[in-house]
Design brief:
The protein is about 35% helix and about 20% strand.
Length: about 450
Amino acid sequence: MFNYVILGLGFGDEGKGSIVDYIAREIGQATSYYPTVIRFNGGPQAAHNVVTPDGKHHTFSQFGSGTLAGARTHLSRFVLVEPFALLNEAEHLTTLGVSPFELLTVEPRCAVITPFQRAANRIREHLRGDNKHGTCGVGFGETVADDTTGIAPLRLEWHMLKHHELSLNIMRLIQERKYEEFKNNLDDLARVLPEEVQILRDPNAPELFNAAMATIAKRIKLCNDNAIPTNGLIFEGAQGALLDQVYGFHPHTTWSSTTSSNVQRLLNPRGLSRDDTCRIGVIRAYHTRHGAGPFPTYNEGLTANVPDIHNGSEGWQGNFRVGWFDYVLAKWAGRLNYPLSGVALTCMDRKLTPPGEPNVRLVCECYDNQNFDIRLRKVFDYDEDKEKFDIMTGTAVALAKCKPHYVPSYSDDDFTRIVEQCLGHDVVITSYGMTAKDKKRSITFK
């Protein structure tokens, strides 16, 4: 049984969940075997929409997007878990006829996002005013920062929830740290973020949250990453390559490796390599971006032409923006995930031009800043993440000033050829709608 890796080649929202669901169903039909979806990065900020052929819809956040196709889910050690969001998601899946916790295992070392980190995340972003970095407001980056930065790192792991005093002490320390950081702003913030302020101030909150999280944890099986099967796996990525914590355009990035690097770290101890996987990069027929950050091909009229029923502008992420296909950024995302086995091209059914006009797709072939590509290529000349981070921060500033040059594409075949030329790989799955029945493929599911 072959293994698949599903990778986003944009700023997220490429349709990864839909492709995972499709592959899980195709494997099941071909082999009568239900695969296991491995989440290898991110956490509850993921929002992978799946619509089944019979009309059921679920936005997958922490469960794998193959769940409605019968697939199991394993949350690897690279995933951050938010217990309350996990419970809410499980309750919705139950209404769809699934017993989600029976299909779920969690690596004991997974970091846990607490309500205090979620509150601090929202407060921090609010205080940035007009200089927002972009956040989903779930506390993901805040939790990673607590674990990796500062004089005294703090990390609550999933297995610790079974040890009451240990987890409670860590929860109290996290609350204390966040309260001390923001205490001088809390009176003013109470008017706009009352719930978040109350969480940081309430002395009883650690005990209450700790008990509730432990109750949730008891319902879920633990499984070490090294105990997962060696085949029949679908590795499901969260967010896209353009948001990667090292190779994305800072500071508008995620605190997560969105390329396949974590997959390799999961495969290598099992004696597997990238040759044992089919690596599929997922990209829309146009680019999208949620919230803050540079977006050269963004087009306000295009955003109005192709409203997305599953991606609104409410919540902490901010506006959902649409732009023409960006050859430069797509090529960069493909390079970050080299080598791919093929490309899944989604949203080919969406008509980008206004009603009554021919469905012409524009493609940004280059920017007026001719040094931009050179700036990107220099990133691979550096070994230290700090130097790469600094270069990508400067590149984000340059990207915000770039003006795209467009060429038209008049047919699906013509556009598909452009995507294949850009990424250097064949389009192996083409999606003309939200369900598995709307996909066409040129690969064999083993």
